[in-house]
Amino acid sequence: MYKAGFIGGGNMAEAIVKGVLKKKIYKPNEIIVTDISSQRLDCFSRDYGVDVSHDNCEASSQCQILFLCTKPQSMRGVLNGIAGNISESALIVSIAAGIRIDFIEEILGSFPVIRVMPNTPALCGAGAAGIYANKAAQKEAANLEAVFNSIGKAVVVETEDEIDIVTALSGSGPAYFFLMMEEMIASAQELGLDYDSAKTLTLQTAFGAAMLALESDKEGVTPARLREQVTSPGGTTEAALKVFQRDQFGAIVLMAMEIARERSKELSGK
Ligand SMILES: NC(=O)C1=CN([C@@H]2O[C@H](COP(=O)(O)OP(=O)(O)OC[C@H]3O[C@@H](n4cnc5c(N)ncnc54)[C@H](O)[C@@H]3O)[C@@H](O)[C@H]2O)C=CC1
Ligand SMILES: O=C(O)[C@@H]1CCC=N1
Predict the structure, then answer these.
(1) Which ligand has the nearest atom to the CA of 168?
(2) Domains of the chain
(3) Model-level pTM?
């Protein structure tokens, strides 16, 4: 029996597998990963030493925790393929955006099911995950929270609808920060700095800002207060921030996150 099985060995499954192995939550021989792609399976076998298989049913029947890590659009087919072949005592954990627990239960029958919305920084132990458990999985939720806390930070939410918000916030969120980094690097180049210097300073600034915000949070200091500390009256930051405000940066962020949340709800129809 494997401790954890991953159906779909894509980007997000790799982030979780790498994270849990690094933190020694599981040993490589306690994990099995399945995929339709031999290339992906070779990568898991070679880079992480875990067992791999093309057979979703074989993995499903031998796992204590079964992580569903395929795209939402392929989830119906995947669930139909493994229904009836899952170990009776298994915990089902879906990381798919939008796929609701009742959709999973309809196909698989009654199981403890947990939805987790992780994110790719789990790759380096700095993930952020939201967790929602159905009634049958309340006991297992604490264990899973510990797993995701070991590869970042995890928050258990009270309602399944909140998972759609978590998806728009921390699931998709890394991409928002990466976009900001891309634009800052490109802008610095446009203004005359060389690419390597622009990249080094951008990445270190993003890292420094995140680290300072986390450290300061322990003392109750908010990001808004930290922003004020950078902003000298009549200085350069104030001049820059006025442009963000004039062009409604806050409204753009809200609009983007609302659309992401709606997309998550739409995916539940798949
Ligand atoms: N990438 C991200 O940042 C995040 C992704 N997610 C969720 O994680 C899930 C996976 O996303 P990614 O890893 O980005 O996608 P991906 O495309 O990298 O991985 C999906 C994998 O599933 C495999 N696959 C397809 N059909 C299969 C089948 N029938 N049986 C076994 N494997 C099959 C594909 O070959 C692929 O390797 C999605 O449902 C997504 O909503 C959740 C949080 C963050
Ligand atoms: O873009 C997506 O649909 C997935 C879910 C959250 C991050 N990536």
Answers:
(1) 2
(2) 2-158 (3.40.50.720), 173-267 (1.10.3730.10)
(3) 0.95
